[in-house]
Amino acid sequence: MKTVKLSNNIIFLLGLGFLCLTNLAFAQNPSLLEVNPPEGPSNNQVRAIVNVRLIDGLGGPPQENAVVLVKGNRILKAGTEDQVAVPVGAEITDGTGMSLLPGLIDSHLHNVNNNKALHAILTNGVTTVRDPGHPFRFYQSLHFAQTKLPRVYLTGAHLDGYPGVYLDQAALVRSTDHIQTLIKDYVMQGGSGIKIYFRLPLKYYETVMRTADFYHIPVVAHLELVDAEDAILAGLQGIEHITSFGTSLAEPEDAREFREGVQADNNYRRDGRYLLWSKIDLSADRVKEVLALAVKNNVVLSPTLTTFERQAGDEEYQAKAFKNMLDFVGMAHQAGVTIVTGSHNSGKYAQRGLAYQREMELFVEAGMSPLEVISSSTLHNAHYFRTQDRLGSIEPGKLADLILVEGNPAVDIKAMYAIKKVMLNGEWVDRDEVVE
User: What PANTHER family does the record tag this protein with (predicted)?
Assistant: First the structure.
């Protein structure tokens, strides 16, 4: 058996051989980059934020009366006022009554050449986004931007199986060779991840994982037809949408009925998810087994709860289903699954442009502490993007993506709606700028 396995590995590596010569730099670089690195300050002026409550994203308690120094586009020093001296000539920002946090990172946001929308997201505190699944051409507008935009990480068109779902957003996989070619092409275009969509057959997952691993880029997936435990056993570590766990948690007959419905009609999943989740018994042994598997395999979950939120006044089964989704996120967190924040743009009960903040509120409702939610929105997402050496926390040497928030979100997460100032790459963003 060992000889057969070795032979298979050799065959796979030979299949990737033609990629090695032209892409060695990608394979050696563990830190992934945005496709639109923002310009930084034109000089090394030191900026000092003083008299502020520091919430650094690392999960520890806030530091009161803190000082953060920024030089160029990097964080120079951070600490209490008796630890950090403000140099003469520094540009001072008084943070009295406010909290300073790392810029928020959105793991799941979609856009189609809309710089105005991206700028609005930035002014609401989100300094970095990842679009899991939209093709590169949906971001051509970035190259013509006249204003500051969040850092944008892309995965390229999602990998789907025939006949596909959103054909303008998909690459329909034909073979394992096709997968290798697609991923090489995506990396060459600046792709920093791969998105599997729900009609891609399980038989292709291993090739996707291994090819992506060659380039040191993560793979995330939206599941409907493939059970979460099968995807995890195939090597998947990033799961988008809480609903992706549905068929793994449900009674086998309910899961079979759901899969058959989706197989026959893509749109069945829209209401079918609520029907499925309304029947799930979260006390069942299979739920504990799925969570244990997710923890063992270091799975990261971006629940996008906001997009599925239903409340009293909606259909009773929908409200019941969402309550199960919310409770499962709490159970996953308690079990040790890494939870990250993704807005999925909007939700029925989210204010326009503030779906991210609503997602943070829902995490607290699920049982996470505000400080845990802040880490999920900053450093945990930076790890998810594999860019934690540059972003995600307020530490010397990291890029100066910062937000000033009125109040104390470590006590009340609703303070995250009160964004007062945003710094991107060492420069304050003009939040009142009109973007055409």
Answer: ALPHA-D-RIBOSE 1-METHYLPHOSPHONATE 5-TRIPHOSPHATE DIPHOSPHATASE (PTHR43135)
Residue 302 lies in a domain: yes
- Looking at the structure of the chain, the number of domains it has is 2
Query: Is residue 387 a contact partner of residue 87, using CB atoms and an 8 Å limit?
Result: no
Give the whole-angstrom CA distance, residue 313 versus residue 323: 14
DSSP for residue 314 = B
HEC string of 301-362?
A: EECCHHHHCCCECECHHHHHHHHHHHHHHHHHHHHCCEECCCCCCCCCCCCCCCHHHHHHHH
Whether residue 283 lies inside any domain: the answer is yes
CATH number of residue 88's parent domain? 2.30.40.10
φ, ψ for residue 295 (rounded to 5)? -65, -45
Residues 246 and 294 occupy one common structural domain:
yes
Are 176 and 71 part of one and the same domain? no
**Full-model pTM:** 0.93
Check if the beta carbon of residue 191 is closer than 8 Å to that of residue 165: no
**Same domain (yes/no): 57, 110:** no
Per-residue pLDDT tens listing for the chain (436 residues)? 333 344 445 444 544 443 443 344 344 445 699 999 999 898 889 999 999 999 999 999 999 999 999 999 999 999 999 999 999 999 999 999 999 999 999 999 999 999 999 999 999 999 999 999 999 999 999 999 999 999 999 999 999 999 999 999 999 999 999 999 999 999 999 999 999 999 999 999 999 999 999 999 999 999 999 999 999 999 999 999 999 999 999 999 999 999 999 999 999 999 999 999 999 999 999 999 999 999 999 999 999 999 999 999 999 999 999 999 999 999 999 999 999 999 999 999 999 999 999 999 999 999 999 999 999 999 999 999 999 999 999 999 999 999 999 999 999 999 999 999 999 999 999 887 767 6
The residue segments making up the domain with residue 68 are 46-102+397-428
**Which of 256, 269, 276, 257 is closest to 321 using CA atoms?**
276
Do 401 and 316 lie in a common domain? no
Residues 6+ apart with CB under 8 A from 335: 291, 292, 294, 295
Residues 204 and 283 in one domain: yes
Q: Are both 229 and 177 inside the same structural domain?
A: yes
Per the domain annotation, does 28 fall within a domain? no
- By C-alpha distance, which of 95, 88, 87 is closest to 66? 95
